[in-house]
Amino acid sequence: MFDYRQYKRGYFMPPVECNDWVKKEYIDKAPIWCSVDLRDGNQALVEPMSLEQKLEFFKLLVKVGFKEIEVGFPAASETEYVFLRTLIEKNMIPDDVTIQVLTQAREHIIKKTFEAVKGAPRAIVHVYNSTSLAQREQVFRKSKEDIKKIAVEGAKLLKELAAKEEGNFAFEYSPESFTGTEPEYALEVCNAVIDIWEPTADNKCIINLPATVEMSLPHVFASQVEYMDKNLHNRENVIISLHPHNDRGTGVADAELGLLAGADRIEGTLFGNGERTGNVDVITLAMNMYAQGVNPELDLSNMPELSETFERLTQMKIDDRHPYCGKLVFAAFSGSHQDAISKGMHYRIENDTEHWTVPYLPINPEDVGRTYDSDVIRINSQSGKGGVAYVLEHNYGMIIPKKMREDLGYAVKDVSDVNHKELTPGEVLEIFEKRYKKYTPVFKITEVHFRQIDGIQTTVTIEKDGEKINIESKGNGRLDAVSNALSEYFNHNCDICCYEEHTLNNKGSESSAIAYVGIVSDEGKEYYGAGVDHDIIRASIDALESAMNRSLEKAE
Predict the structure, then answer these.
(1) Which domain range does residue 138 map to?
(2) Where is Mg(2+) annotated to bind (predicted)?
């Protein structure tokens, strides 16, 4: 059955219009980041992490730069209890990192949580209860007053136990299933909790607004957040936190618009791991800021290492198209895209190395530990002449003449198409060399001698069908003289239409030169060759030799 009529909108709009967030253009500073990988992310895994794996993951989160890390639900799991005690007793929590623990708003669970967190240098105790209409009616079967009382009693107990225990505690409250709660009722409950905690500038509390299940377009969530931002008691001493999930595929948008609407903090996970369709992806959020020139205050400069560690510890697979970190997110197979990227890279070098504006690449792949040769220009049957030329230039220092690129591009596409595979830079080089370097199926030039008499006179010795033949001619320059000699002997046009050269490396006397030569045949078709030698004249002659051989071979 696929009947849309069984569904209706389960969210509630604020009682007043809350659209000020739309006047803001972009997020101009990083939020307070709180990783919930070790709790929310871990409980969503098919096989939750072991103690050793959680310890390694904790170190990874610290290395990335998270200053708040939710480490678990210690009252509900022995593994999480032991993990928390290990962090505390082995002094593994850095001085600038605050751990966070989760507890339901139930007396015995709250008490056990405080026992578990004893001795922590700093801890956020996060208490929650569900407030949505569906949960009140179907799960708890309690009135609004009854549900609010659960939150109030939990808040009182947190304050009472924190006063008795040694430690530096901060409090957080979540009206779980906030997105399915009437905003004015969620506000009533949160304000009741705030009034009990009486936060100050030196001891702020956190009100966390979770999109436990995404139920609306992101702009609706932003309006709900703005309503809370404008109406919470003691707002200057309250940190508004968001905890978006991704049921509608818009968790990142919820978080971004929620920040525009007044939120100060984000709870999320690396790569969006979490229940059902996942939590909000902190990496995408942070990199979106980075790509617009805003410091995300997280170090994501080694994305390959981050991805490998995450996949190994969680046994989750990061999608190849995952924003910023997927294996293919910087890859360009399309010819037009490759050409634009190649031209953009050259423009940047020539005009503005301080800023990144390369087409099709929102960020410089090198910023996150990726490389151009294996990550950006990828060659297959969809690739174009610009991409092929870029691969040869970036990997081997060859600057292919514009007139030659089309011929080379088609040759590479044909190989990829026939073999139904992507080609490596090495395979592209192999195609180039087989087609253009020392291509001599008809003849070989074995010797060339020049005399400067009335221009340049030359004697060219060729080997054809096992026989050596000397050919004499003259021209305006050395390459022109050799071209005339070949044209006269074979009675075949050999007019040079393209000639370019450059150094391949910079090792003084050991430098090699590469020359590219294009000729026009009797039929008006262009043929190309390339030559590499320490002597640029010899390299040019080798290039002409290959081009003429190809032209003669096609004429036979």
Answers:
(1) 30-314
(2) 40, 243, 245, 279
Q: 398 and 497: one domain? A: no
Ligand-binding site membership of 492 (annotated): no
CA distance 82 to 205: 27
Calpha distance 172→161 (Å, rounded): 14
Give the single-character DSSP code of 455.
Answer: S
Same domain for 218 and 71, yes or no, is: yes
510 shares a domain with 413: no
pLDDT tens for each residue of 460-494: 999 999 999 999 999 999 999 999 999 999 999 98
Rg (CA), the chain: 34
CA angle 341/343/348 to nearest 5° reads 95
206 is a domain residue: yes
In the chain, % helix, strand, coil (3-state, to 5) comes to 45, 20, 35
Considering the domain architecture, whether residues 430 and 473 belong to the same structural domain is answered as no
Q: What is the pLDDT of residues 300-329, one digit of tens each?
A: 999 999 999 999 999 999 999 999 999 988
Coil, strand or helix at 175: strand
| 284 and 342 housed in the same domain | no
> Which tens digit of pLDDT belongs to each residue from 65-102?
999 999 999 988 888 999 999 999 999 999 999 999 99
Query: Residue 115 and residue 109: Cα distance in Å, rounded?
Result: 10
Alpha-carbon distances of 69 from 38, 101, 270, 389, rounded to whole Å: 8, 9, 12, 47
**CA-CA distance, 122 to 96, in Å (whole number)?**
9
The structure tokens listed for 99 are 């751990």
Cα 172–chain centre separation: 32
Judge whether 243 is annotated as a binding position.
Answer: yes
Query: Helices 251-260 and 282-290: crossing angle, nearest 10°?
Result: 50
> CATH code at 254?
3.20.20.70
Q: Is the dihedral of CA 282, 284, 289, 290 positive or negative?
A: positive
In the numeric block, the tokens 């170190």 are attached to 59
502 is in an annotated binding site: no
Question: Is 245 labelled as part of a ligand binding site?
Answer: yes
Number of domains in the chain: 3
Residue type, 433: E
Instruction: Characterize 64-89 residue by residue with b for buried, 16 or more Cβ atoms within 10 angstroms of its Cβ, and e for exposed.
Output: bbbbbbbbbbbbbbeebbebbbbbbe
| Eight-class DSSP state of 512 | -
CB atoms within 10 A of CB 258: 29
